[in-house]
């Protein structure tokens, strides 16, 4: 029982960052319909920027997180502007091939710039774990969860309560009508991709200090993000948030009770099962099978 | 002229070991040939049915592991039973590797073709990752990250001809060349048969194809079976040639290599994977003198993006168009060869 409790606490902590990854991708894959294989690279980019600001330059830990997120947003907007803008009407395979190419380029650039050795980011929080009865957890992980939840809430507000969010939803529902209503459709595309990328970078910046930063850390992150998006239903932000926690729970249980080697396999098993039995995702209302 | 081109190419490549004595270059060509075979199998799905399998390396790796384990033997305990397998000849391993990879193609086809487009891609990627994790973690069977060393090379022949074991580079070169030529012929027959036309019809317009009575699942699954088996064959050739395999064969970059070969050469063309395979098989040899592996991959990624922007159909259709324009300038308005090559 105590062990299960510990698993649930771990789930909450990993789930927060998974939810960030998933919400970022659901904006790009679910709403913009771009099979974004660079999502994991943006996650790795966020972690490396965190390393750069916090460990190399030695800036304040929390300011570094904000800077890493901003850098992710800028890189995402840059990708959309250079690679995707001219291919907007193209079929999904074309953009997918472009994104695979971009993925390889980014990953190897990271390798080239930072080297293959794993980097660790020092944390300013106390080393002493927080002990609550049978459960113990580090302060760093608590902070990760708090920031992740704050970012999820902020994204929800931006999409559902602001004029910018309204413009985004309008653009991807009917681009022509949105343009006629005076929405700058090009800018909205770039901003949405930037926002999604910023969330991936945030997940990387938050998990970077918890684990270590390596050039290939993005591979699994991309695929896990796809699992979360499919689980939650395309374009469903609440679904992606819940999907993040479900994936984290499945991984905890898989690692705890089956074998830790198969922790990362859980996401793929979930993808396969969900697509076979409920391809619209667990929380989708309308049929949206690609 | 165009009709004889494949034969000329075959004669040329058959002559290569006669004048190229550098073992390193021959080795590069053998590995390039094996990946070309895998790219041909991917082309069946990506080029002819229009479904991008991004988990293709799974079939390749399964072929390699099945073939290696058959010829090395293994002993595992499964659900309380002890299963011991004595080593069998490598040729049997190759056949088994091909068949089992084809069976996996059947299973994945049956499961994954319930969904299309991006979803199909994600299911195939997930499949490959699961297989990789199994190869990494089922240490008793696969030796995990410690790799399976000492895989015997192929032995060919019959009792009345005597046996020959393929240790050398040029022997393996000819073996791969024979398989490439066979695969080329089989795929050529296949895509010009009613089966091939059904696949192309499904790619061009699935709804219309269904309305004239083409069974979607049947043809897509058949394509996946052929494709999986051919990739498995390539994997088993790889295992017996390199003689050591580890879970790195399931690396996503191997799938990417195949995809780049097909896309650059021209998806849905017979010669596309061959041309793409040659380019990306030989490019590392030239590039390694100047830049490290990371920069090479960066260049491949940039090339892939550039191809999508500049030559979305790939190199072979571009050359064909240029060739047609040159010949139609001589004799006015020749009918397009587009349908023949499967590019609508």
Automatic annotation (TrEMBL), chain A:
Pfam families the UniProt entry points to: BPD_transp_2 (PF02653)
* GO MF, one example: transmembrane transporter activity
Give me the Gene Ontology terms describing cellular component.
plasma membrane
Residues annotated as transmembrane: 12-35, 65-84, 96-117, 137-159, 191-213, 225-250, 262-284
Domain of life assignment: Bacteria
Q: What are its GO biological-process terms?
A: amino acid transport
Signal peptide stretch: none
| Residue ranges the record marks as coiled coil | none
Alphabetic keyword roster: Amino-acid transport, Cell membrane, Membrane, Transmembrane, Transmembrane helix, Transport
Its subcellular locations are: Cell membrane
Q: Which InterPro entries match?
A: ABC_transp_permease, BCAA_transport_permease
* Predominant place of localization: membrane
Membrane topology designation: Multi-pass membrane protein
Task: Say which family it is in.
Answer: Belongs to the binding-protein-dependent transport system permease family. LivHM subfamily.
Protein name stated in the entry: Inner-membrane translocator
């Amino acid at each position: 029982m105590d062990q299960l409790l510990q698993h649930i606490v771990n789930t909450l902590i990993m789930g927060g960052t998974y939810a960030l990854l998933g919400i970022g991708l659901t904006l790009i894959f679910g709403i913009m319909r771009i099979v974004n294989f660079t999502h994991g690279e943006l996650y790795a980019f966020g972690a490396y920027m965190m390393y750069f600001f916090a460990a190399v330059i030695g800036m304040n830990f929390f300011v570094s997180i904000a800077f890493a997120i901003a850098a992710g947003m800028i890189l995402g907007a840059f990708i959309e502007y250079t690679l995707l803008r001219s291919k907007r009407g193209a079929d999904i395979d074309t953009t997918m091939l472009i994104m695979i190419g971009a993925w390889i380029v980014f990953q190897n650039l990271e390798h080239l710039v930072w080297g293959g050795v794993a980097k660790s980011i020092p944390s300013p929080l106390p080393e002493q774990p927080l002990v609550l009865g049978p459960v113990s957890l580090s302060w760093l992980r608590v902070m990760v969860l708090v920031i992740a939840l704050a970012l999820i809430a902020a994204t929800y507000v931006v999409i559902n309560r602001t004029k910018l969010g309204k413009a985004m939803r309008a653009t991807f529902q009917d681009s022509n009508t949105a343009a006629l209503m005076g929405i700058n459709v090009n800018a909205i595309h770039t901003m949405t991709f930037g926002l999604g990328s910023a969330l991936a970078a945030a997940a990387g910046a938050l998990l970077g200090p918890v684990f270590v930063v390596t050039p290939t850390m993005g591979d699994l992150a991309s695929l896990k993000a796809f699992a979360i998006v499919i689980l939650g239903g395309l374009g469903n932000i609440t679904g992606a948030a819940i999907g993040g926690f479900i994936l984290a729970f499945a991984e905890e249980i898989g690692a705890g009770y089956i074998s830790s080697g198969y922790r990362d396999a859980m996401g793929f098993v979930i993808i396969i099962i969900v697509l076979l039995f409920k391809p619209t995702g667990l929380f989708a209302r309308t049929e949206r099978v690609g | 002229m165009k009709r004889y081109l494949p034969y000329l190419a075959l004669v040329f490549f058959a002559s290569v070991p006669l004048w190229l004595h550098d073992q390193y270059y021959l080795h590069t060509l053998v590995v390039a040939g094996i990946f070309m075979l895998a790219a041909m199998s991917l082309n069946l799905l990506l080029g002819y049915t229009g479904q991008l399998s991004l988990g293709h390396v799974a079939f390749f790796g399964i072929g390699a592991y099945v073939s290696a384990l058959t010829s090395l033997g293994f002993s595992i305990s499964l659900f309380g039973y002890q299963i011991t397998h004595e080593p069998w000849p490598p040729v049997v391993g190759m056949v088994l590797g091909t068949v089992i990879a084809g069976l996996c193609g059947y299973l994945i086809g049956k499961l994954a073709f319930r969904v299309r487009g991006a979803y199909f891609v994600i299911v195939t990627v997930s499949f490959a990752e699961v297989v990789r994790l199994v190869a990494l973690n089922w240490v008793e069977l696969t030796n995990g990250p410690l790799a399976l060393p000492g895989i015997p090379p192929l032995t060919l022949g019959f009792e009345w001809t005597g046996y020959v074991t393929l240790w050398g580079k040029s022997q393996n070169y000819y073996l791969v060349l024979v398989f490439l030529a066979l695969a080329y012929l089989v795929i050529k027959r296949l895509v010009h048969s009613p089966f091939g036309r059904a696949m192309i019809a499904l790619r061009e317009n699935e709804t219309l194809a269904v309305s004239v009575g083409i069974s979607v699942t049947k043809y897509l699954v058949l394509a996946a079976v052929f494709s999986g088996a051919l990739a498995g064959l390539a994997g088993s050739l790889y295992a017996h040639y390199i003689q050591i395999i580890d879970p790195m064969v399931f690396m996503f970059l191997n799938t990417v290599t195949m995809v780049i070969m097909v896309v650059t050469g021209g998806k849905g063309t017979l010669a596309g994977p061959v041309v793409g395979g040659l380019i990306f098989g030989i490019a590392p040899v030239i590039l390694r003198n100047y830049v490290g592996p990371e920069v090479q991959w960066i260049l491949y990624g940039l090339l892939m993006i550039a191809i999508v922007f500049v030559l979305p159909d790939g190199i072979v259709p571009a050359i064909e168009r240029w060739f047609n324009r040159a010949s139609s300038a001589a004799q006015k308005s020749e009918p397009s060869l587009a349908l023949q090559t499967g590019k609508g």
